[in-house]
Specification:
By secondary structure, the protein is mainly alpha-helical. It has 16 helices and 8 strands. Strands 1-2-3 form a 3-stranded antiparallel sheet, with helices on one face. Strand 4 and strand 5 (about 235) form a beta hairpin.
Length: about 425
């Protein structure tokens, strides 16, 4: 009976001569020989947990592990906060940027709203209504929904959730797969204009981005050993995100990409100026000997250069120069906001690092490259991503294709006239 008895443990308050009193959790742990050993663990102070109920909630995740092989009929009192704790401890993805995103969604949005709810109390329509009320993009809401869905799946695997269907599976996020802002695709002339406004090493980084379609996290993480100049190929095998060297986004992202001779010449020329480091970083910041932070480059150099593609709607001058009316430049406060740029040029968004990846995909389409080749060059797991997310024909191609249809339609009319 001892091996099947559900263990609740006990929470006790320990007095201290100095400082706040502390909560202690006492329980039994089964040893390899079957013997039970009494143990105690520190929960927190009375400043952290005001009463015994709050302290007990804090040890729910530990109780779940202690009772993995016990009957689960007592677990109707498991809160979603306990699932959050155990998911964070055992199930978070290893990749840094993904972990960071998941933790942010859990700690900022999910736990504060649902942490004290029992599992059976979290119902689809209530969650859907909550997501609708959040002031954020549909895609961000879809990410939150995805994390909640994963945690319910884990709860089911841990035998803490008995419903036949994951309730979050029925939650809809309207527009969750759509973009609010259509990604910009550059023309060759626009790309050349931006490139001419950039200094090194940002100029070479942009050349690599546009020639290979790499993600900026992959460009920042490049090392000279990744290049095989004899075979004219590059192995993409790591990323650099928020100061952390990490694995690439997916298993399909780790792959060889072709290295054109002209691009190889540009890189070898840059190697003469590049800062030598122990790790062999291609684009190392001389202040840190580590890769540059791409977000800072985007904010200080890529965005301002992108604004120079159009004239200032306030005074008519090129946005890249001093504005006659308010004396601001793109290197100071942003002169041209998205709405102004859209009204002035019909563009759909500001220029950023990912603009070059979208442009690379569209230019591949212009060359007539087969879709499977495009998928492999983009290193996408699914060809649907290549076609739908990155599929945007350039204006000239759409105009040419439409012209052919119009000519077919109107040719009989012209002949009869």
């Amino acid at each position: 009976m001892d091996r099947t008895r559900y263990q609740f443990g006990s929470v006790t308050l320990k007095k201290r001569a100095k400082g706040a009193d502390v909560w202690e959790f006492r329980y039994y742990e089964t040893q390899a020989d079957g013997a039970r050993k009494r143990k105690a663990t520190f929960i927190g102070t009375t400043n952290q947990y005001k009463n015994k109920s709050e302290a007990r909630v804090a040890v729910e995740a530990l109780l779940l592990r202690l009772n993995e092989e016990k009957p689960q009929h007592h677990l109707g009192a498991v809160t979603f906060g306990a699932i959050c704790d155990r998911y964070i401890e055992e199930e978070l993805p290893p990749r840094y940027s993904t972990r960071k995103s998941y933790l942010s969604n859990i700690n900022i949005h999910i736990r504060p709203r649902w942490g004290h709810y029992l599992l059976h109390q979290i119902r689809p329509m209530v969650v859907e209504g909550w997501l609708k009320s959040l002031d954020m993009a549909p895609k961000s809401k879809a990410h939150i929904r995805g994390v909640m869905h994963l945690m319910f799946e884990c709860a089911a695997r841990w035998e803490l959730f008995n419903d036949r269907r994951n309730p979050i599976q029925m939650v809809r996020v309207k527009g969750g797969t759509k973009r609010l802002v259509r990604p910009t695709v550059l023309t060759v002339q626009e790309y050349e204009t931006i490139l001419g406004l950039l200094k090194e090493p940002y100029r070479t980084m942009v050349i690599v981005a546009q020639c290979l379609g790499l993600r900026v996290s992959e460009i920042a993480a490049l090392q000279w050993d990744d290049f095989d100049f004899e075979k004219n190929q590059l192995l993409v095998q790591r990323s650099f995100v928020s100061g952390h060297v990490d694995d690439v986004k997916t298993e399909y992202s780790r792959d060889y990409v072709p290295l054109h001779e002209s691009l190889a010449e540009v890189l070898l020329e840059w190697e003469k100026e590049a800062l030598p480091t122990e790790e062999g970083w291609v684009f190392a910041n001389p202040l840190t000997n580590k890769p540059y932070y791409p977000t800072e480059i985007q904010k200080r150099h890529i965005h301002p250069a992108g604004c120079c593609l159009v004239a200032c709607p306030k005074c008519g001058a090129n946005v890249g120069v001093w504005c006659k009316q308010d004396g601001r430049t793109p290197n100071g406060k942003r002169l041209l906001i998205h709405e102004e740029r859209k009204a002035a040029t019909g563009k759909y968004g500001r220029i950023g690092w990912h603009t070059f990846r979208h442009t690379y995909r569209s230019w591949l389409d212009e060359t007539g490259a087969p879709m499977k080749v495009q998928q492999e060059l983009m290193r996408h797991a699914s060809i649907q991503t290549t076609m739908n997310v990155y599929g945007q024909a350039m204006s000239s191609s759409k105009r040419e294709a439409n012209s052919k249809i119009v000519e077919m339609v109107l040719k009989p009319l012209k002949a009869s006239a």
